[in-house]
Amino acid sequence: MAKRIRKISYVRCRGGSPLLDGIDRSSLPRDCGAILQLFPDGISKCRYGCLGGGSCEAACHFAAIRIEDGPPVIDTGKCVGCGLCKRACPQDLIEIILPDSNIQPKCSSRDTGKAAREACSNSCISCGICEKVCPAGAIHIRDGKPVIDPAECICCGMCAVRCPRGVIRDLNGVMTAD
Amino acid sequence: MAEEVRQIPYTFTVNGIERSVEENKPLLRYLRDDLRLYSVKDGCSEGACGTCTIVVDGYAVKACVLTTERAAGKSIITVEGLSLREKEAFVYAFGTAGSVQCGFCIPGMVMAGKALIDRNPDPTEKEIKRAIRGNVCRCTGYKKIISGIRRAAAILRGEEEVRQISQFTGKMLPEQNEFISVVGSNYDPERASGIANYENRGSSAQYGMGQNVFRIDVRKKVLGYGKYPDDIGPEYFVPADRPDLIMEQTGWTQEEYDNALAEGRLEPGTTICRKDEPLCNMCTIVDPEMPPMAYCSAVRSDYPRAVVKKIHKEKAESLPGVLGVLTAEDVPHNKVGHIQQDWDVMIAEGDTTRMAGDAICLVVAESPYILEAAKKAVKVEYEPLEPVRNIAEAKAEGAPLIHESGNLCQQRHVVRGDAAKALAESAFTVTESFSTPFTEHAFLEPECAVSFPYGDGVKILSTDQGAYDTRHETLIMFGWEDTPERVVVENQLIGGGFGGKEDVTTQHLSALAAVKYKRPVKMKFSRSESLRVHPKRHAMEGTFTLGCDENGILTGLDCEINFDTGAYASLCGPVLERACTHSVGPYNYHNTDIRGFGYYTNNPPAGAFRGFGVCQSQFALESLLNVLARKVGISPWEIRYRNAIEPGLELPNGQIADVSTALKETLVAVKPYFDDAPEDRVGIACAMKNAGVGVGLPDKGRARLEVKNGLVWIFTAASDIGQGCQTVFIQDVSQATDLPITKIWIGISNTENAPNSGTTSGSRQTLVTGEAVRGAALMLKKAMDEEGVTEETLDKLNGRKFEYEYFEPTDKLGSDKPHPKSHIAYGYATNVAVLDADGRVTDIYAAFDAGKVVNPLSMSGQIEGGVLMSMGYALTESWPLRDCVPTARYGTLGLLRSTDIPDIHAIHVEKDELLDASYGAKGVGEITSIPAAPAIAGAYYAKDGVLRTKLPIGNSFYSKKKK
Fold this sequence. Notes:
The structure holds 2 protein chains of 2 kinds.
Chain A: E1 8-11, H1 32-38, H2 55-59, E2 65-66, E3 73-74, H3 84-88, E4 94-97, E5 103-105, H4 113-119, H5 129-133, E6 139-142, E7 145-148, H6 158-162, E8 168-170
Antiparallel strand pairs in A: 1-4, 2-3, 5-8, 6-7
Chain B: E1 10-14, E2 17-21, H1 27-34, E3 53-56, E4 59-62, E5 75-77, H2 84-97, H3 106-119, H4 125-131, H5 143-156, H6 204-207, H7 218-222, E6 237-239, H8 243-250, H9 254-262, E7 271-272, E8 283-286, E9 294-300, E10 306-312, H10 314-318, E11 322-326, E12 335-336, E13 343-344, E14 359-365, H11 368-377, E15 379-384, H12 391-395, E16 408-416, H13 419-424, E17 428-436, E18 448-454, E19 457-462, H14 467-478, E20 487-491, H15 507-517, E21 521-524, H16 527-533, E22 536-537, E23 539-548, E24 554-566, H17 572-582, E25 592-600, E26 606-607, H18 614-632, H19 636-643, H20 663-676, E27 682-691, E28 701-708, E29 711-715, H21 725-737, E30 744-746, H22 765-786, E31 801-806, E32 825-835, E33 841-849, H23 856-875, E34 881-882, E35 885-886, E36 903-909, H24 932-944, H25 957-962
Parallel strand pairs in B: 1-5, 6-8, 9-21, 19-20, 22-26, 24-25, 29-30, 33-36
Antiparallel strand pairs in B: 1-2, 3-4, 3-5, 7-8, 9-14, 10-15, 11-14, 12-13, 16-25, 17-23, 18-19, 18-21, 23-24, 27-32, 28-29, 28-31, 32-33, 34-35
Helix pairs in contact in B: 2-5, 3-5, 14-15, 17-18, 18-19, 18-24, 21-22, 23-24
């Protein structure tokens, strides 16, 4: 019997975008869908990032995803990769990955260049360095953000080391902090 | 980002020792250059190959990607820092599993394996494949590395023992010998007692012909202390007046040092070994006045065809630490070349480049860092010209001449019978044009050489496929052909070759600089330089017409083969010739008209590559056979069997197939698998491949045995590029003399003390050199018998030498003999490839006739590696050029990775009737990479009825995946 390889959730946002003027986080509903209804363009300068409403946390049956300050944190020991959190996220920030695919982009912004830089301190600015340094041709900028083809990626971490914005992370905490 | 700023100095632990470093640089450079941890190999420095894999905080990481800054606070382990138990587990597991061939990927594989086993002590095959998916191996096809890691895990779990087992005797050291005490440089015999006794005595019954043998180079390759040229650092050259350094390098006591000095063993130029590792070539004694090792590298043309107007080297020469910049004017004779001397050492001012990557000038500097800066400071003015991109442009009227002799580099015409008439009278004929690409060898070890002044000439420490070939080309460059002893070439470990290390690349240039500046000089290719410079497999455009009668019996072949040999001839002549002579396949028909042409273009050069022209022409022929089988209405297996050559029949070149011919046996061996597979998902192909250079050339095997200190030493200059010929030679001696392997040693391939035994090419070492070794061993055996010497009393023969030369003449191409003998032997093969419903290759049944199987473990390793290489050729590998300029990097060549491999079933077909040379062994190196590609193409033809005429084949599972 082949062992089934366990997967985990991964959140493609590190936070870091300031709230828009006049938004008070404590007054927001604890539901991301509801937040979006109130603020269709989002609550932060980056409209693509985590809303912090905790819908993912509420959806998880295993207490494996938790929101404190900023985007959710996954407890990889508890996460079973069921995908409920992914379904609950209206911003489509969560992906189900193999834990040994340890090099992952952590930004979903479609903004590029200056706009992206101004919207968030942790944003991908679509500079394309990752594409250039990838020895396997596995990473490409798509819709303003880095996308890794898991079939081609060999997890060398070159993109993570060279990314000037710290967008691409190493889950193992070696090439970058996790 | 803020959390990633670290304080200088960066502090981390390496193998348990705390280290601090001020400079931020790739960790690979720090580990190799500063700590001299040479197990961490530099295969690409761009994250693609995995040879520098180390373990950081428990994870396998590529040292070329991680920086000293990012390593701060972390714990780093290299192979050198494994526990003794782990080292022994991996040496034993990898040796018994046959995981080690060229060895350059192996330390990285060990560390990837270690990281996995630490987290998951009982990994599945699938988990191991994923764990090593970032580590490329070009030799083994991964299968034996995967089983090696599984076995290491079992040992480390305590479920398997490291033990003495008769069929896996390892190369070990005589326990009682005075100058040898332990195995390996990192080895503590007391702590290891009870672990390492597997590397114990073995008689010929355990080590002779047909035994699964633990190869002799496993330990040094697994533990990473074996030296490839790049592992020679400045510390290799020890001034004669520094006894402290000499004792440090050798492990000698003061008394041992004094003895060596008194015996004159410390003269400048002498190479000495650690006392516990007599073959390690630890360092070379040099004159105290000799400056330290320098570094050189060539500035290369970006243009495939451009006039070099002016070379501005003044700025570079004025930089501190730059010794000088050499140009064509500094080269005594500016042409080299393996066979034809058409390759400019450097392109002179006023001359025209022939390829992107031509050397313009050679910068020599005190350090690699200064060297890089100085190369950037050289400015070259070019006048770019329109390049000749392909065969059609080379043939075109008025095409620019790449060489004065014209753009047609080589041609061959092979005719027998009357092909036109036979085809006209055939029941069925088929004509198709085929096109196959350039292919990159992608050996894991980039080219590197270290040269230093030696006697009245130069000594080159080299990685190549023939020390005497390298000497020959270098002598031509210096104009020293009359005094060949002035150039000495010594092979180090060779990290794969596959044909790509037959031409000189770094050797002659480092020698030029060493002679000019009178000091040691290292030249190492970056990976991108390696990809640009060394010759590739020829791209082919060919048109083939094959006919058969109504029963599928072949009648005739007409074909025209056009090779793109790029900027230089390299081995175009022989490769083209082999493509032509083998294009008929291993079948019994006698009307052939084969025209072969090799054209110069401005592409990178093409030359030797495993398969030697036959991969291209067999792909075409075998594909056409499938079409004919359909027309006749018989199976692809049946049409091959009906035409298969047998002993006593005439091969299509007129040579009589000898008794050892076992093509039909290989067909029979795969038949059950062919029959069991679904009809529309299975393909089959046969192949034949010569062993030995043949065609009337003086292809000689030479060996000398010497008895020294009661041990037999084998001396033969025959490069072991990972295929394992050195182990084969020891088996030959063991078989002939019945000596245990404790008594048999093999010296390094060196032109000063080993006789010329030809190039590692044409699958010839096991047969040609093997027979020379056997001849010498039989002379030794005779002397032992006559003088009543046994293994215990071998001392009595101390000082005796036994030399043997083996030469079996062959007939040149176009000989008018009725049955010319082109080659001394041919190997045969049949491969069956099976696809799943999506078109993924799931299984390859690979039957090979290589005569006597010398070491079954090694042979299946050759098969698995060669077949996977052939599968890459069929499906994924490419070497794209944009206006003659290569665009691929190592990671995008399409090399198959561990997660892509099918199940390759190696089938050894060994007949009772064998040739009488070399115990009947014929060699298997090249043929392994020929039949799988057409078998896979045949399976796709069976699947969708579309004949694939291009490689890599289109509309496949793999081509779709790429998009």
